[in-house]
Design goal:
Blueprint (H helix, E strand, L loop, with lengths): L1 E4 L6 H10 L4 E4 L10 E4 L5 H10 L3 H9 L4 E4 L1 H5 L1 E4 L5 E2 L4 E7 L13 E6 L1 E2 L13 E6 L1 E5 L5 E7 L1 E9 L2 E4 L7 H13 L1
Parallel strand pairs: 1-2, 1-3, 3-4, 4-14, 5-7
Antiparallel strand pairs: 5-6, 7-11, 8-10, 9-12, 12-13, 13-14
Length: about 200
């Protein structure tokens, strides 16, 4: 069974509906005491990094998520949820993250942008991927839907499994052992997004 973590900062219904399209029942779970009972967890997220960490803290979820990750069971962070997996973020100040993957979260460097590129990065874009079980069976071009102003910087290049071009190439998918994250929204990315979720189900 898969739990979608409810900490009042995510597109829960959209993510749950996407799994339902694949015939997979999920539970929207807000009780951290129950996390350990699940086979996999999904950490979605929409909004600001600092607010998200405060919501997790207020709900006593941080230690439970870390304990779940340490168990070796699969964890998938989506959009802001992926960023929360990292050690820190500079969004509206300096904020500590979950620290499950080494690295930090920074704003797009708009000085490197070509003309007419704006933040947030919004819309369909291609992901250049490494071979990974999360990407099995994707269309060759891997177009997915993005909405974000900040992106991750991995301390270890081996943790990078996907990159995207927007002004410059940035990390858009990561994996460190059982901890995975994708910057685009699979629930909004039609066929390719559903394929990623199906691959996560099969891990």
């Amino acid at each position: 069974m898969i739990a979608i973590i409810d900490y009042n900062m995510g597109n829960l219904a959209s993510v749950q509906n996407a799994f339902a399209k694949l015939g997979k029942d999920t539970v929207v779970e807000s009780d951290p005491q129950k996390f350990a009972a699940y086979d996999k967890i999904v950490l979605p997220g929409v909004g600001a990094f600092g607010d998200a960490m405060e919501h997790l803290r207020q709900r006593d979820m941080i230690d439970s998520i870390k304990e779940f990750a340490a168990s070796g069971k699969p964890v998938l962070g989506i959009c802001l949820g992926m960023q929360l997996l990292f050690q820190s973020s500079e969004e509206f100040g300096e904020h500590e993250g979950l620290g499950l993957i080494k690295g930090d979260v920074k704003a797009f460097d708009t000085t490197k942008f070509r003309e007419n590129l704006k933040v947030p990065h919004m819309g369909w874009n291609r992901m250049f991927t490494k071979e990974h079980p999360l990407f099995k069976g994707l269309d060759e071009n891997h177009y997915l839907y993005f909405v974000h102003t900040y992106h991750v910087h991995c301390a270890n290049e081996d943790d990078i499994i996907g990159q995207t071009e927007y002004g410059y190439r940035f990390t858009s998918a990561v994996a460190h052992e059982n901890i995975m994250g994708i910057q685009p929204h699979p629930e909004k990315s039609h066929k390719n997004g559903l394929q990623i979720l199906e691959n996560f189900i099969c891990l």
